[in-house]
Amino acid sequence: MERTFIAIKPDGVQRGAEDCLELGFKLVGIKVVVPSKDFAQKHYHDLKERPFFNGSCDFLSSGPVIAMVWEGEGVIRYGRKLIGATDRQKSEHGTIRGDLAVVVGRNIIHGSNGPVTAKDEINLWFKPQELVSYTTNAEKWIYGDN
Ligand code: GTP
Ligand code: MG
Question: Which sites bind ATP (predicted)?
Answer without folding.
Answer: 9, 52, 80, 86, 97, 107
